[in-house]
Amino acid sequence: MCAHVLVAEDDVRQATVIRRYLEREGHTALVVHDGRAAIDEARRRPPDLLVLDVMMPVVDGLDVCRILRGESSGLPVLMLTARATEEDLLLGLDLGADDYMTKPYSPRELMARIRTLLRRSRRTGGGADVPDDRRTTDPVLRAGALSVDPVRHTVHLGGRQVECTPGEFEVLAVMAAEPERVFTRRQLLTRTRGSDRFITERTIDVHILNLRKKLEADPKQPVLLLTVFGVGYKMADGPEGHRAH
Fold first, then answer.
1. CATH top-level class for 132-243?
2. Predicted model pTM
């Protein structure tokens, strides 16, 4: 599973270590040392994955993530940060990052995270790498006016295409597969991230919040992605779902 990875890290030593580990696993790695260069290179040659340090010169990593996420919802982004507070980490997710690691980190753990993101991206990343027989056997998931295609990695609501990050898409696909089922945050986290001990349940809250902004007519009064107080979330099916747009 070779990939082109863009590494945006201003610490030359850490960037060199990341590049060596990536190349050891058969990937190609392009390293840049400031946020402006990261944006330019991502536009010039879209990577399969972006490893992005938060504390970057010229343009910081959060702004890089916000800008590139606005241009490509399907680009997997793994953020590296020395900011260890939960609020800082959740801010990165809110801007569209798919995963994060706090410094100092183990290079082997970083590679494991990269492998996971690449597998998730290629599993849900569109029809180019999907055999024809899967196109006919994988059903489109539907809940009211919402349709989620796990093969082509597309989301439509009432005929309108909705752009989602890989993390948002996985949460949506899990819920759309079982409309009206109530999921706890832990269940959604396990279904989408496995047993990753570094990811908190508040990650799910951030994804739901962002999905409501994209899918609900009034995110403060959702009719599609509903909160079940004291338990978790569910996706409405039927008339309520049809009113969302």
1. mainly alpha
2. 0.63
